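Section 3.1: Structural characterization of target chains.
Under the original work plan, the team committed to producing a structural model for every single-chain target entering the pipeline before any wet-lab resources were allocated. The record below documents one such target. The sequence was received from the expression subgroup and is listed exactly as submitted; it comprises 156 residues.
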Amino acid sequence: MDISKNSMIRFIIYIGVIVTSANIYNYVYLHFLYAIRGKVLCPALGSVSMCELGLTSGYLGVVTGHVLAILLFLKSVEKLKHSKILNRLEYLICGTQVILQLWLGAYFAIVSSDAGSTDDVRVTLFISYFCLNALLFTINGILSYLDQINRERYYQ
């Protein structure tokens, strides 16, 4: 197995992505959803469907973080070290996640302003989790691309 400093840093950042995405998921449950007399309400984001979208986006970030951590482990196995698909897949997933996380952050900012809860600190913190996820995915994508360049140069 080939484990470098770059791989360890990326693995730690993937753990950060998983924790931040789990915070998004838990934040919606703990701060935005209210059950009153058998009805579920989400006044901070305007409707229950927006809260469900927040739950789904948090769950998607957790799953993506786990998949990328598994890809990182598979890339360190001796037989799969030279796989071009695995080498390119990681930074492509990170790139799409950066775009998705920034889009979700902007979307929830617009939705919360339409609902009239822009001054609420909880909504601001909720949106900042998406920005933090985008930053972590950006760092991992750059490190993955640099690792791919290093591997191509080393094994040619």
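The radius of gyration is 18 Å.
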